[in-house]
Amino acid sequence: MNEYSLPDQINQLLTSNRRQTEHFTELVRKGNYMPETPDVLIDAITALSMGKNVLLKGPTGSGKTKFAETLSYLFNQPMFSVNSSVDLDAESLLGFKTLEYKDGQQQIDFVPGPVINAMNYGTFLYIDEINMAKPETLPLINGVLDYRRTLTNPFTNEIVSANEGFGVIAAINEGYVGTVPLNEALKNRFVVIEVSYIQGEQLKQLIHNSTKLSDKTLIDLFVKLSEDLIFAVSQGKIAEDAASIRALLDACDLSALIPPKRAIQRAITDKLDEAREREFVASIAETLFR
């Protein structure tokens, strides 16, 4: 099983006193993901450095993709991505055959997909919303996810073995429409990292680093808006989409140039399907951004 040669800065983080939050913050700043606690990122780094697969589990918009991108940045490791859906098939994962002309002759060529590319290049593979895929599709890569790190390409009958540096990060939204529970054989191939909504100082830092909004008063208000939306989700008053950190960052970006309430309408409110949810979010925005 592959183990990574960690950059010096990550080695220092893993061996340093975990209370040194300033060092931690500076290390992850450029990755643009600030977890609720340093342990969340440290544990993910530790698992990947030992050659284990990581499953990021959390609500919609909690920053799982940004988390994966930050891990890719910290390891200085490019990342191939798979966006799961009910239409995900062997070709989407592994690649496909195509007709090519070479020296005037027609020949069949194989174009690698994200899984085989990541294995060949020894990079990260990111599988987003892995539980959106049909249960019969994912067993195609079971061998990739265990100690073998190999698969038999059904299109070429070639045995593909992952090169050093290959690793798998997946994300899951439990209970979301269109998802199915992961079977135990698949789930047992991952170390699970719970990803919560970013709040408080971490969110403030993320807004500062990731958006064009620089007004400190407005940033504080957006942090409070996020807190109110997350609480409303926990009470079942609005859908998880309304509390998406991704959507909040879009609203912050827009607020650098247009009024905040209009920015919230464009980035958050108008995405919601139910009128009562749109009215609820608009009411919170009206209270905060007078």
From TrEMBL:
Pfam family, one: AAA_5
SUPFAM superfamilies from the UniProt entry: P-loop containing nucleoside triphosphate hydrolases
Transmembrane segments annotated in the record for this chain: none
Domain (ATPase dynein-related AAA): residue spans on this chain: 53-190
Superkingdom field: Bacteria
UniProt signal peptide: none
Family designation: Belongs to the CbbQ/NirQ/NorQ/GpvN family.
Protein name per UniProt: MoxR family ATPase
Origin species: Virgibacillus halodenitrificans (Bacillus halodenitrificans)
Lineage: Bacteria, Bacillati, Bacillota, Bacilli, Bacillales
